[in-house]
Predict the 3D structure of the following.
Amino acid sequence: MRRRFAQHLVRMVTDLTGVWDFAFLGDVDPVTVDVATIPFQDRMAVPGCFDATPAYAGLRGLAAYRTHVVLYDDGPHRLLLDGVHHWCRVIVNGTALADHVGGFTQFYVDIPQPGYELEIVILVDNRFDYERCPLHLDYFDWYHYGGIARAVELHRLGDLWIDAVRVITADIGLDMTGPRVRVEVDYGCLATVGSTDIGIAVDGQVLLTETVNADGPTGRFVCELALPDAALWSPDAPNLHMLDVRMGQDDMRTRFGIRQIAVAQQQIVINGKPIRLLGFNRHEIHPEFGHGLPDSLLIADLQLLRDMGCNFVRGSHYPQDVRFLDLCDEYGICVWSESIGWQQTAAHLTDPRYIAAQMTNIDEMVAAAFNHPSVIMWGIQNESHSEDPACRPAYEQFLARLRAHDPARPVTFASNHPFDDVCLDLADIISINTYPGWYDGELEQIPVRLDQIAAHLDAEGHSAKPLIISEI
């Protein structure tokens, strides 16, 4: 259950997917747990959701996962986790190193002095506890499974390491200049490393070699690359390219597509060509696997989308697995990537704890999905109370956070308040959830309702924005 390509060819990476020791502790406070006395008498697949297995089906409580790793050396390592539900605490060799909230995003934990052997224990809690985990609430319209639902890796870091690589379309070359991209490389180091070589290749061709002064503890290298022979990405021609960065003794690879997204005259435009989006909302969930879907189900979902003539999928209502995004890149399926949220009220959207957790979720969502050309828009807060003026400041903060991370992609949110929403002006794309013929009225009223919504939005000054019927 790994991504479609190796992110590192030089860095030593240990895949920790497999079978871990497991114990279901139940309704206990994580603070009271002594790791040394946990009775690990069962086994559990990683990735997977423990409450989707027969022995623990439907149970909520604290669980413990454990694995042991023998290391090649005692240098600094990083534990990378793609998704743990809903709350977790990472404990290495008896020391609690980090807590994390929100099960659908990747995070990492640094282990600066690991020794030569690691005991990794992850306490995982799938209970609804607003104090610790305000992003997951018990009234949401999907079942919240618990467990280490996505992949786990252990990375050996050196004196200098690459944290992230972003590929930004600077000029896609719709004229004679040819495609250009901007590359941003974030790196860290333990101490002042000094002069360090950096090299960047695209599709196996070295395009840049330079020497940089890595004076730590963090830094960023930025360059622009001309790619005159690169083909553009679009739903009709999903051309992809591979970028390799070598810096000192570390490396990172990322796949990208060159394309430009714009909003103009009620249309969403890809590479200067208007596109009509047809698709579905998708939950990443299954009664046998919880949120930890095998590759075969990801492929099945995309086959269904293509069989229905779709070119679009909305990740409802949380960030999708990067493996699914990889496949959407390849299939040419456009994606709306959405942070965790469902019908939050003013009580949530004025609560500093919720605001902080949502900001972190947005940060992690964008970090994981940024280089995927299939992701053409960002979204927040499905059906939250955007008709309430008290909620507007939160919408302003969340959408501003998205634009700060990525000013190139449009932002949106799904509103079920088409006639009294006070936040629609903040979005680049208007997205409306409406259910005529289901929750109210008859099927024959669907065209009338949609015409009423469109006319009202035009009258309210939103006529220049694209309109998506995001649920119906």
About this structure: Helices lie at 295-307, 322-331, 346-349, 352-369, 392-405, 446-459. The mean pLDDT is 94. The first strand starts at residue 13 and ends at 15.
